[in-house]
Write a structure and sequence with these properties.
It is built from five helices and no strands. It has helices at 3-20, 33-51, 58-64, 75-86, 101-122.
Length: 127
Amino acid sequence: MKKFEIKKILRESTIGLEETGKTPDIQKANKTKKDDESAKDSDYDTVVQLLGNDIINHAAIVRRMKGDGWGTNDEATNRSKFRKKVKKMSNDEGGTYLFDEDELTQVQKILMNIASTISHSIGREGK
């Protein structure tokens, strides 16, 4: 048998399986919402733990934040809002101040830039 004949036979035998979704060799991982939420909580907790270090200057991070609610306020308001979100304080409506996904990503990028700058300046081993 030639190569193209083998391919044709294999293609014909798998056409019915693909349409019904019963492909025995292909397994797909299903993401659950619970896994996504726990990953977000884990990222949030990691960022909060890093921000708990006294060496990290929160005001400098706040100055680099972009987006809705960060550019229109004065610096004192932004620092206050940032502190409330880090400490997960409650607001007047009974909710909790939390970073949204975009804000959390921004903070992670800022922290990574700090780490990268230190790594490039001093080196990985501090020599």
